[in-house]
Structure formats: structure tokens, C-alpha cells
Automatic annotation (TrEMBL), chain A:
Gene3D superfamilies to which the protein is assigned, alphabetical: Urease accessory protein UreF
Primary residence: cytoplasm
Protein's organism: Streptomyces atratus
A GO term, aspect molecular function: nickel cation binding
Gene name of the record: ureF
Record's subunit section: UreD, UreF and UreG form a complex that acts as a GTP-hydrolysis-dependent molecular chaperone, activating the urease apoprotein by helping to assemble the nickel containing metallocenter of UreC. The UreE protein probably delivers the nickel.
Protein name, entry field: Urease accessory protein UreF
Length: 224, 281
């Protein structure tokens, strides 16, 4: 296994389409709820400990070799809002294309064939990490980081926030990222005893509500 | 109801550790109407049978003592057997309070509905008083042809009061497969709970879940509910299975209920054969 593969996977320039998504930051900026570095940090912290934790758990479980189709169903059950399921599958399809080119594997091929319109992105990412020889905790880190780096990057564009300030927000979230990734990997480790109920299902009402509202905007800068 | 450890000099009905109580309701079809062969209140849960509505049996949960307090272990099990129609409400809001020490309370609701059964769980809201710490779960097992209407509302703190801590998990299985699994955590100690991604100053959050096999054929359309930001916001979305969920946040319990009632009225108007949610209140 090469640990450096984690940098390739977690790099914001990995060609999986994530740059077109704000992770809910666009509607939060429009509503005035994200207006500076401090509110961006609180937004990211809330997203990390809810949607981020859920996604990291799914990715860690996929990286550990649990059935990706069952995980895809678990992801559906944890994503009650239609707009977010659509986004997750769209991103999953793009991640799949990049992953199969980068770390080809029979498992990726099988999931791609079973879910031609895309599986949930964290499941695909976890399987990509597995194909790259990475550990479940690595996959959890990649997803947890992406959960906060997406909105932080988007906020720079939406608010003309100083990129130094946005990066400082990410640095301040490092202890939360450590905790989230560890909790996600630990949950995935409990699947053999507890089944998929072991996976986190944390929710954030405003992320859910505003994602569906945002999907109905006629003009928007980000896809989600 | 059992009290652990045995009460020494504690107030009657409660010890430093708390109340342990399980109330049970079973509804079954007897002739043309639903009957209630099991209606066992326990501890803080007094169960009252209300006048039936058509073939539907109705039960009201009446609070017999202040609960849940920290340390309490409370549970309600309600089953609508094959073909039965059971409607459960509560007489008053549930008020979670701090116990004698910082120990949390638990309140677990287990709902089961058999083939062609119909179960409504529509209690009044949960109010999480300052200093309280509650873990609430709803575990729902539905047969493939069962119908469910479930509402849950959390109000964080009484008027002008700081909120307590509450962690919830709602798990719904249909035909053995998980249809919805959702946790929420609000109040002191829950990271980011009052930030722009989670509640952003709103003090009331709630959901209305409707599961009905009719949605296999005709899933509900997405609907955005709520007007100006000060009225709160809600969205109705179809789940990945035959169900729809309304998620709502509002500044207070009154406006939250208004949003959920609006959503429920929408269901009644748009769903063919909306008998499952007739009289959903």
C-alpha cells in the first residue's frame, strides 16, 4: 500500500467534479448565515459532524470491503432529501470514472455495472480508496476533509473571502476532522457485530431543507 | 414499573437513579373494529382509550408524573397487528428535565405495524428544558403493506430558557429493509448544532413521516413550505422508498406546528386514498 495515494485521492484537483459543488454553502451565503470566516467555520463544523460523519462512515465501510450495494442502500436511508440523493449519485458517477482510470479494480467495475447512473459518492470513494490500497481510516479522512474543504473553497468565491482566512478555518477544524474520521472508521469496524446500523446517521435540518430549496433556484453558481 | 436501586429515603415513585417503565399497547382486529387487548400503562405513562373513530382504535398517553427526568429509562411499545388501525396521541407536551445529577434519561418508542395495518404516532412535542439531557429513539418495524404516520417535534428550552441536550435516532424498517435512519443532536455539547448548517438560531425542529404503499406507484412531489424566514422553513421530499418526509425548523413550537400542519393538509389533498392520514392530527 502507498500512503501517498491518499494525497492523490484527497487532492481538490482530483478530477471527480467536486469543485462544482458548494456543499450547501451557496444557499447559506445567500441567506446571510455564512458571512465571514467565523460563520464559515461554524457551518463547516456542523456539516462535518452531521453529513460529513455519515459520509465518512460509508466510505470507511466501503474501504473495509463491505458490500457496496448494501452500503448504497444505507446511504439512501441516511439521505432523506431527494436533491441530496441526486447530487450524491451524480458525484458518485464522476468519482467512479476518475477512480476506474486511476486505480482500476474488479470491485469498481462491478459497482459501476450495478449502478450505471452512479452510486452514492462516499461509497464509490471508499471503494476507490480500497482499490488504491488505502485503509478505512484513510477513506474516512478523505471524505471528512472534502466535507469542509468544499464549502470553504466555495465561500472564497461566493463571499470574496480572503483565501488565507478560509485556509485558517480548515486548519482550526483539524481536531474535529481527526475526531470525525476516527469515529467513522470505528463505526465501520463495528459492522461485523452490529450490522449497518452501526454506521452514523447524523442529520442537519437546515442542510437538508436548503439543499432542496437550492435545487429549485433558476440561476446558481454551484450545482449543490 | 421498577425502581432501581430500591428506594431508601427518596420521594415516592422515584429514586436518585430514576424511573424504569415500559408501557405496552397492542391493537388487533376484532370483528369490524380494532380492539385493544393490551393497554398497559406504566410509570409516567397512563394510557387512556379514546372514543374510536370508524374502525380505528384511539389511545391517549397521559402523563402520570413529571418525566423524563435525568436517570429515567422509559419505553413505549405499540403494535398494530395485521389489519388493525391504531392512533396514538398524548394529552400534553413531554417535558424533559434535569434529574438529581447529570445522568441522562432515555425514552425509547418501538412501533410495529403488521400487514395492512395502520399506525399513527402523533404525540404533542418534546420540550427540552435547560439542563436536561435526553436520548430518544423511535424504532419502527413495518410490514410491506403497513401504513405509518409519525410526527416528532423538539422544542429546545422553555420560553426564554437555554436549551437542554437531546440526541435522537429514528429508524424505520419496512419488510426488514431500512427505509430511513436518522440521528439528530441539539443543545450544549453537540458540535455545530446552532450554526448555519444545522439550526442557526431556530429553537424548534420536527418531522412528519408518512409511509404508504400507494407511494410505490405515485411518489409525492417535492414541496417547499414556509414563507418568510421568521416563519420557519420546511421541505417535503419523497424518500428512496414509498414514503415522504417533511423536515421543518422554526423559531418556536407554534410556528413549527403550523408548518407541519400545512404539510399534513397538503398530504390529505394530494394523496389518492388519503385515508391513512385522514384525521392525522
Amino acid at each position: 500500500m502507498s500512503r501517498a495515494a491518499l494525497f492523490v485521492l484527497a487532492d481538490g484537483r482530483f478530477p471527480a467534479g467536486g469543485h462544482a459543488h458548494s456543499g450547501g454553502a451557496e444557499p447559506a451565503v445567500a441567506a446571510g448565515r455564512i458571512k465571514d470566516a467565523d460563520s464559515l467555520e461554524e457551518f463547516c463544523r456542523g456539516r462535518l459532524h452531521t453529513a460529513g460523519l455519515v459520509a465518512a462512515g460509508l466510505a470507511a465501510a466501503a474501504a473495509a470491503g463491505h458490500d457496496p450495494l448494501a452500503l448504497d442502500e444505507a446511504a439512501d436511508a441516511r439521505t432523506p432529501v431527494q436533491a441530496l440523493r441526486t447530487t450524491a449519485r451524480k458525484l458518485g458517477r464522476q468519482m467512479m470514472r476518475a477512480a476506474r482510470a486511476t486505480w482500476p479494480s474488479a470491485e469498481l467495475d462491478a459497482l459501476s455495472a450495478a449502478r450505471p447512473r452512479g452510486a452514492h459518492q462516499p461509497v464509490v470513494l471508499g471503494l476507490a480508496a480500497r482499490s488504491a490500497g488505502l485503509a478505512p481510516l484513510d477513506a474516512a479522512y478523505a471524505v471528512a476533509y472534502e466535507t469542509v474543504s468544499g464549502p470553504a473553497t466555495a465561500a472564497v468565491r461566493l463571499l470574496s473571502l480572503d483565501p488565507f482566512d478560509a485556509t485558517a478555518v480548515l486548519a482550526r477544524l483539524a481536531p474535529d476532522l481527526d475526531r470525525t474520521a476516527a469515529a467513522a472508521a470505528a463505526a465501520a469496524g463495528r459492522i461485523p457485530e452490529e450490522g449497518f446500523d452501526a454506521l452514523p446517521a447524523a442529520s442537519a435540518p437546515l442542510l437538508d431543507i436548503t439543499a432542496q430549496q437550492h435545487a429549485a433556484w433558476p440561476v446558481r453558481l454551484f450545482a449543490s | 414499573m421498577t425502581l432501581v436501586p430500591p428506594p431508601a429515603a427518596a420521594a415516592p415513585g422515584r429514586t436518585a437513579v430514576g424511573v424504569r417503565a415500559t408501557a405496552r399497547i397492542t391493537a388487533t382486529v376484532g370483528g369490524t373494529a380494532t380492539t385493544l387487548p393490551v393497554l398497559d400503562g406504566d410509570g409516567p405513562f397512563e394510557l387512556r382509550r379514546l372514543r374510536s373513530h370508524g374502525s380505528e382504535a384511539r389511545v391517549c398517553i397521559v402523563g402520570a408524573m413529571s418525566a423524563p427526568l435525568g436517570g429515567d429509562r422509559l419505553r413505549i411499545e405499540a403494535t398494530a397487528q395485521q389489519g388493525a388501525a391504531l392512533h396514538i396521541t398524548s394529552a400534553a407536551a413531554t417535558l424533559a428535565l434535569r434529574g438529581p445529577d447529570s445522568e441522562h434519561a432515555t425514552y425509547d418508542v418501538h412501533l410495529t405495524a403488521g400487514e395492512h395495518a395502520q399506525l399513527h404516532w402523533l404525540p404533542k412535542p418534546l420540550i427540552c428544558a435547560g439542563g436536561s439531557d435526553l436520548r430518544q429513539t423511535w424504532t419502527v418495524d413495518l410490514a410491506p403493506t403497513a401504513r405509518l404516520v409519525l410526527r416528532e417535534e423538539q422544542i429546545l428550552g422553555r420560553t426564554g430558557e437555554s436549551p437542554g441536550h437531546v440526541a435522537t435516532r429514528l429508524t424505520v424498517r419496512r419488510g426488514g429493509r431500512t427505509l430511513l435512519d436518522q440521528q439528530a443532536e441539539y443543545g450544549p455539547g453537540a458540535p455545530g448544532w446552532d450554526g448555519p448548517a444545522v439550526l442557526a438560531g431556530h429553537r424548534a425542529a420536527g418531522q412528519l413521516l408518512i409511509v404508504d404503499p400507494v407511494f410505490e406507484e405515485t411518489p409525492l412531489e417535492v414541496q417547499l413550505l414556509g414563507g418568510s424566514p421568521e416563519d420557519g422553513q420546511a421541505v417535503l421530499t419523497p424518500l428512496a422508498g414509498p414514503a415522504a418526509l417533511v423536515t421543518a425548523v422554526a423559531p418556536d413550537g407554534l410556528r413549527l406546528r403550523h408548518l407541519l400542519d400545512t404539510a399534513q393538509a397538503t398530504f390529505r389533498r394530494t394523496v389518492p386514498g388519503a385515508s391513512a392520514i385522514r384525521e392525522g392530527r
